[in-house]
TrEMBL record:
Secretion signal span: 1-21
Gene3D superfamilies: 3.10.450.10
InterPro entries assigned to the protein according to its UniProt record, in alphabetical order: Cystatin_dom (IPR000010), Cystatin_sf (IPR046350)
Keywords for this protein: Protease inhibitor, Signal, Thiol protease inhibitor
Ranges for domain Cystatin: 43-115
GO molecular function terms listed in the Swiss-Prot or TrEMBL record: cysteine-type endopeptidase inhibitor activity
Lineage: Eukaryota, Viridiplantae, Streptophyta, Embryophyta, Tracheophyta
Superkingdom: Eukaryota
Annotated protein name in UniProt: Cystatin domain-containing protein
Pfam families membership: SQAPI (PF16845)
Length: 141
């Protein structure tokens, strides 16, 4: 009888430690970052026709959404990233100068454009003067 009680107590204690160990491992587990994670790559040629096409798409899509008229002036800087699991998906962050026809002259804007198999998608569009930090956030150049 003593052996039975001892084994029962031992198994319940071991079960408790096993359950506690699993709970603590699950809550503190973080995935190991892949050393081959993609990085933002600077756009070297801001006068590249493809970059200009992406910027003009962003301006026209923003107009479609907001009715805010902008005239493209030039690309200031930009970065892009491709994802290793899907090389047909590229995200661009482009800072460009545009004129809204006002007397204040050119203003800088930031557009985030996704280039997909199915076409282009405007993921973000902000005036840089409104929030300089957001305009340079994630723009690793």
């Amino acid at each position: 009888m003593n052996k039975t009680i001892f084994l029962l107590l031992l198994s319940s204690v071991l079960f408790f430690f096993h359950a506690f160990a699993l709970t603590s491992v699950k809550s503190s587990w973080n995935p190991i970052m892949d050393v081959k994670d993609p990085e933002w790559i600077p756009i070297k040629d801001v006068k590249d026709p493809h970059v200009i096409q992406l910027t003009e798409f962003a301006i026209s899509e923003n107009f479609r959404r907001t009715k805010h008229i902008l005239k493209f002036v030039t690309v200031v800087k930009g970065v892009f990233i491709t994802f290793p699991h899907d090389d047909k998906f590229i995200t661009y962050q482009i800072v460009f100068a545009a004129n809204d026809g006002g007397s204040s002259g050119n203003k800088n804007y930031k557009a985030v454009v996704n280039e997909l198999n199915s076409g282009l998608e405007l993921a973000g569009f902000i005036p840089c003067e409104d929030d300089f930090y957001k305009c340079n956030e994630f723009l690793h150049i």
